[in-house]
Amino acid sequence: MTRVDYYNDPNAPKANSIAVAVSAFIQDDEGRILMIKRTDNDLYSIPGGQLELGETLAEAAVREVREETGIECEVTTVIGLYSDPKHVIAYDDGEVRQEFSICFRAQPTGGKPSTSSESKEVTWRTAQEIGSLNIHRSIKMRIEHALSGNVETFFS
Questions:
Q1: Which of 29, 32, 38, 47 is the most buried (most CB within 10 A)?
Q2: Running DSSP on this structure, what letter comes out for residue 13?
Q3: What string of DSSP letters covers 16-58?
């Protein structure tokens, strides 16, 4: 399924659903950031996805990281809560979802980078390299918040 992210776009379709999503900002011992290249929109992103019934938010983040990257991790803190109604995600099945995502900071605990049906590339990138990647504005914002050093949780 393909997706298109709209942010502050007057031509964006109106949202018709909302779902809880999580993402994880992970750095290795060298300070590089774990990134994927998504298969559904061909953009780079930090790993993440939808909460499933029967799991906690932290469990969802760990599962999504494992599924999309092959990396095992442990959630340590919350970076931010993102619920801007000006950010909608349109899917080719007609669903238009309002953003509602919790971004966690996590640390890697094992595993080996591997792609999945949701990720065509798994890579560790420096903060400087991030600027040259094609990343949606909403994900850039999460990365900026994570790198800012601010200990307070961001929310929108």
A1: 47
A2: P
A3: -EE--EEEEEEB-TT-PEEEEEETTT--EE-SEEE--TT--HH
β-bridge partners, 24: 104
Q: Rounded to whole angstroms, what are the CA distances from 65 to 9, 90, 151?
A: 29, 23, 23
**How far apart are alpha carbons 13 and 120 in whole angstroms?**
27
Place of tokens 């996805």: 49
| CATH code of the domain containing 140 | 3.90.79.10
Q: The pTM is what?
A: 0.95
Question: Cα(112)–Cα(12) distance, rounded to whole angstroms?
Answer: 38
- Tokens read off for 74: 């442990």
Total number of domains constituting the chain = 1
The residue type found at 1 is M
Range of the domain at 52: 3-155
Please list the active-site residues: 121
What is the tens place of the pLDDT at every residue in 21-75? 999 999 999 999 999 999 999 999 999 999 999 999 999 999 999 999 999 999 9
Place of tokens 């591997």: 114
> Nearest to residue 34, comparing CAs of 100, 115, 141?
115
